[in-house]
Model the fold of this input.
Amino acid sequence: MSETETTPDGATVVITHRVSPGKEADYDNWLTEITPLCRASPGHLDVQVIRPIAGLTTTYTVVIRFDTCDHLRLWMGSEARRRLIERVRPFLVADDAYTIRSGLDFWFMPAGGGAKVPVRWKQLLVTWSAIYPLVLVVPLAVLPALRFLGLPDDRYLNTLAISACVVFLMTYVVMPHYTRWVRHWLFD
Done:
């Protein structure tokens, strides 16, 4: 295992596998076996498989999100995962490598693992285009909810609640799907 960073609220693991030449079909079959087990684990939120791009990368990158670090560690240390990792080792060039983190650093491709990272200006445009509609719409829902709860109309409290909702939506709802939707443009 490589560098580890944790927080009490949510966690992401990025697993990188370099598959031996000619073993890609075996690896894909293995993925179809392990993915449903991962999805059935407590606290599982999302799994994405980023396949190598011919002539550009040779690494499969698997990004898995869980609601808590404890649930993530439970999956990573599970007997089912350990057994399946033993089965995939003959298909790999190097051993199972992974990094656990949490926060906003997984909106885009993680550093390392041989994965291509999008240029900054594209990251900026994607992030901006995702945040803009949220900052227009979220206040329309949050402000009436705050007033309904009897909280005072306070600029700082309003901004705190709105920004918390925007960050939550960006991290758990919008960016995991949006980056997948624009990935072809993002990685051109």
User: Anything to note?
Assistant: The chain has two domains: 11-106, 120-186. Residues 34 and 84 are 7 Å apart (CA to CA). The beta strands are 11-18, 44-50, 59-66, 97-101.
